[in-house]
Amino acid sequence: MTLLSSLLFPFPAVHRRSPATSTTTNHFPWNKPRKPDDTVTFSYSTLEQRRVRLDERFVTRSIVPANAQDLIHNVGATVGVLGGAYALVFTFDDLTRRNILDQGLSRKLVHILSGLLFLVSWPIFSTSSEARYFAAFVPLVNFLRLLVNGLSLVSDQGLIKSVTRKGDPKELLRGPLYYVGILMLCAVVFWRESPIGVVSLAMMCGGDGVADIIGRRYGSIKIPYNQKKSWAGSIAMFIFGFLVSIGMLYYYSALGHVEFNWESILPRVAFVSIVATVVESLPTTEVIDDNISVPLVTMAVTFFILNH
Question: What is the rounded CA–CA span in Å between residue 179 and residue 205?
């Protein structure tokens, strides 16, 4: 998938650079090739260790196969992120149960934070091409959880209260299910090498999520073509969608996954934010959920505008 991503997204405003440190084997394209004068020597001790000479330096490593190390790394990251996801939902469920937070506000905060924290967690996983599937396992677990509760095969009242609008389990099969489906799609298809998934999740979680909160509180002036949406909500979506997108892109740039020409990327992300805001404001919620329309349109527009 990494090679495929590099072929599909040759953006002039986006230049990939490899992570600073990698423990994977040489078949991954972002590993630095050896120079002709580099030497690698192996010496095995009674402790079953080897000494690798590279660029006149010796590094002692335990003789554990690289793929085994990679597996341990990704399994540990998956367990940690999955635990964090459950802790987040449990916390807001508890706050709702104690009447500290309104159910609607709790639901939107879960909507905003769970997706963004999932996006922030991607660098925790290894640099192997299989790492994306371990990350995608986290929303997959939540996908299955929503499915069985939405079909009333089991009944988790805490989940239903913290995620649905009206407490109807069938709501889990619509917006929330689409939401975690988009998380899986962005992780598997785009991952860390492409800004498309990053911007799409930023707009869906940060932009759309904040728009609903601001719109319900300050949205007295409605948009003429959609009385269910307000100018305050749409303005908030544009501002926060743009800021969260840039913040996430800076985060991945600082970690060395991508490199940007910021003078070029800023106006392009602003344009994407405008388009996503317009899509969110349209009276199409009954036909297609915002958790599908906003990220999918964002993906298409981001691909087009960055590629040109």
Answer: 9
Distant-in-sequence, close-in-space partners of 296: CB < 8 Å, separation ≥ 6: 200
Rounded CA-CA distance 308/46 in Å is: 58
298's tokens: 């964002």
Q: What range defines the domain where residue 114 resides?
A: 65-307
By CB atoms closer than 10 A (0-12, 13-18, 19+), residue 230 is buried
Q: What is the pTM of this model?
A: 0.75
Asked if residue 234 is part of any domain, the answer here is yes
User: How many Cβ atoms from other residues are within 10 Å of residue 281's Cβ?
Assistant: 22
7 assigned to some structural domain = no
Q: Is residue 25 part of a domain?
A: no
Number of other CB atoms surrounding residue 115 within 10 Å:
25
Per-residue pLDDT 10s for the chain (308 aa) are: 444 444 444 444 455 454 444 444 444 333 444 444 443 333 434 444 444 444 444 444 445 567 888 999 999 999 999 999 989 988 888 888 888 888 788 888 988 999 999 999 999 999 998 999 999 999 999 999 999 988 988 887 767 776 777 778 888 898 889 999 999 999 999 999 889 999 999 999 999 999 999 999 998 899 999 999 999 999 999 999 999 999 999 999 999 888 888 899 999 999 999 999 999 999 988 889 999 999 999 999 999 998 76
How many domains, the chain? 1
Residue 69 DSSP SS3: helix
Could you give the CA distance from residue 230 to residue 228 in angstroms, rounded to a whole number? 7
- Residue 304 to residues 42, 196, 272: CA-CA distances in angstroms? 49, 10, 10
What is the rounded CA–CA span in Å between residue 192 and residue 70? 17
Query: What DSSP element (H or E) covers 259?
Result: strand 258-260
33 in any annotated domain = no
